[in-house]
């Protein structure tokens, strides 16, 4: 079947089944003569040639069909594929507007599957209004029970879904607060240490002044301070082993040259990337009697610079987190806009950083040449959240998360892959079903894959598919680069 197929059936012929013929159908066998006469008068028979499309999934449910003869197949669309759910030639099976008897709650009634006649088929047909009328008038108690069951299930699922989403929002907020607390606490600690180091510098400056240091030496010391800070800014990062070896070298040199507290100063110089050559240069530029105070002064200057860098990094991290949260929530932005998908992916990864953890390696393969697409970014961010959260949970804290973007014809594709155990074939067929989950109560985002599917397919005219085998599972979301046609 293709999306361009049209429903082309021969005209319905009214009044061609008698009450006795209707009674041979199991659906009507217990009805009274009067009821059978009413159905015969209001129904009609319809012929569908072999291969013809009888009804299409998603279109308004306007007719109730009962199979009289022939073979039919029912299919449902899953991703880009049509999955056959029923193939039957059983006389009397019914399909179509099977829920027309439910009260009008504002939810449009649509066909839940596509039906095609595999060979010449004949149907008995009632309109949805007539079928709903006879059900409500003839079986009021049964209808009340069915309505209560249907509405009750819908209400309970809505309440449960809302609670799950609130719980997921709480978990996401708690994670964000944790992420914000880390740099905030680091900035607070660095500020306290900075206050102590500045006080030490003032004290050391007083000692230098009391010592009546010649102006030339003070100038040399100030110049050395700027030189040391500049050298530290350009120094390459050291591994833990290299830093430990450097500390030992610096500590021994300072001890040999009479610098007090050498083993406390050595880590500061090592962290700044300074070496023995730097200390030798300092010793050559200041008098021997001033070396101890000069090294301490330079140590204070170096440490204050490092602390200010830590504060700058921490506050920048806070600003980045706030910006990511604002982008993720799409606060103060239009619901529908042209977007770069990478912005939403990056903000989602930031928001889920606490869930991803250190055991999962994140690989980003972004095609920066992709065009902007028309979308509802807040809704797409929910899809990214659900897919990434599912991938991380599948890997149980260890593995590789790959987020990739690329172009495929007139679509932008976002693929999210993990190295988890994979999805069994029997579950792969059901993952897009409403309310289906493999997670225990309280886990997950509360946004099922069926909702993600509807956001992508119904809300954006795109597609979402999955491929899975042990060690490699990938969800691919395809989004059109142009506004979908209004036709």
TrEMBL record:
Keyword Mitochondrion: no
EC numbers on record: 2.7.13.3
PROSITE patterns recorded: CNMP_BINDING_3, HIS_KIN
Presence of the UniProt keyword Metal-binding in the record: no
Biological process (GO), any one: phosphorelay signal transduction system
Cyclic nucleotide-binding domain ranges (all copies): 27-135
Name under which the protein is recorded: histidine kinase
């Amino acid at each position: 079947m293709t999306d361009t197929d049209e429903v082309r059936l021969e005209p319905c012929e009214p009044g061609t089944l008698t009450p006795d013929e209707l009674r041979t159908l199991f659906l009507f066998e217990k009805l009274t003569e009067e009821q059978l006469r009413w159905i015969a008068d209001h129904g009609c028979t319809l012929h569908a040639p072999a291969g013809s499309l009888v009804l299409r999934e998603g279109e308004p449910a306007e007719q109730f069909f009962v199979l009289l003869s022939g073979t039919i197949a029912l299919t449902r669309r899953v991703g880009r594929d049509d999955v056959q759910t029923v193939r039957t030639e059983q006389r009397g099976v019914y399909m179509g507007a099977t829920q027309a008897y439910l009260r009008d709650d504002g939810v449009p009634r649509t066909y839940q599957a596509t039906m095609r006649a595999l060979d010449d088929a004949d149907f008995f047909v009632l309109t949805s209004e007539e079928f709903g009328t006879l059900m409500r008038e003839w079986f009021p108690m049964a209808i009340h029970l069915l309505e209560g069951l249907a509405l009750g299930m819908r209400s309970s699922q809505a309440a449960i879904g809302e609670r799950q989403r609130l719980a997921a929002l709480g978990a996401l907020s708690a994670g964000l607060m944790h992420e914000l607390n880390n740099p905030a606490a680091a900035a607070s600690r660095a500020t306290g240490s900075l206050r102590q180091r500045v006080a030490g510098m003032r004290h050391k400056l007083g000692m230098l002044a009391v010592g009546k240091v010649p102006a030339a030496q003070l100038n040399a010391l100030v110049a050395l301070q700027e030189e040391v800070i500049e050298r530290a800014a350009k120094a390459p990062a050291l591994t833990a082993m290299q830093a430990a070896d450097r500390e030992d070298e610096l500590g021994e040199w300072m001890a040999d040259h009479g610098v007090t507290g050498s083993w406390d100063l050595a880590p500061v110089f090592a962290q700044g990337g300074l070496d023995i050559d730097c200390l030798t240069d300092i010793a050559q530029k200041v008098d021997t009697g001033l070396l101890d105070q000069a090294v301490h002064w330079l140590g204070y200057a170096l440490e204050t610079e490092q602390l200010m860098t830590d504060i700058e990094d921490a506050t920048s991290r806070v600003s980045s987190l706030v910006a990511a949260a604002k982008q993720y929530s799409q606060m103060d932005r239009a619901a529908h806009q042209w977007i770069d998908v990478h912005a939403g992916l990056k903000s989602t990864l930031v928001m889920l950083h606490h869930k991803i953890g250190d055991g999962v390696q994140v690989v980003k393969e972004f095609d920066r040449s992709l065009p902007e697409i028309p979308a509802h970014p807040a809704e797409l961010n929910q899809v990214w959240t659900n897919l990434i959260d599912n991938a991380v949970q599948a890997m149980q804290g260890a593995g590789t998360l790959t987020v990739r973007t690329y172009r495929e014809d007139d679509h932008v594709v976002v693929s999210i892959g993990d190295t988890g155990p994979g999805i069994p074939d029997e579950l792969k067929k059901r993952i897009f079903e409403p309310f289906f989950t493999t997670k225990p109560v309280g886990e997950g985002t509360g946004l099922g894959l069926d909702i993600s599917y509807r956001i992508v397919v119904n809300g954006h005219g795109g597609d979402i598919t999955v491929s899975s085998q042990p060690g490699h599972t990938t969800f691919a979301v395809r989004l059109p680069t142009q506004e979908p046609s209004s036709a």
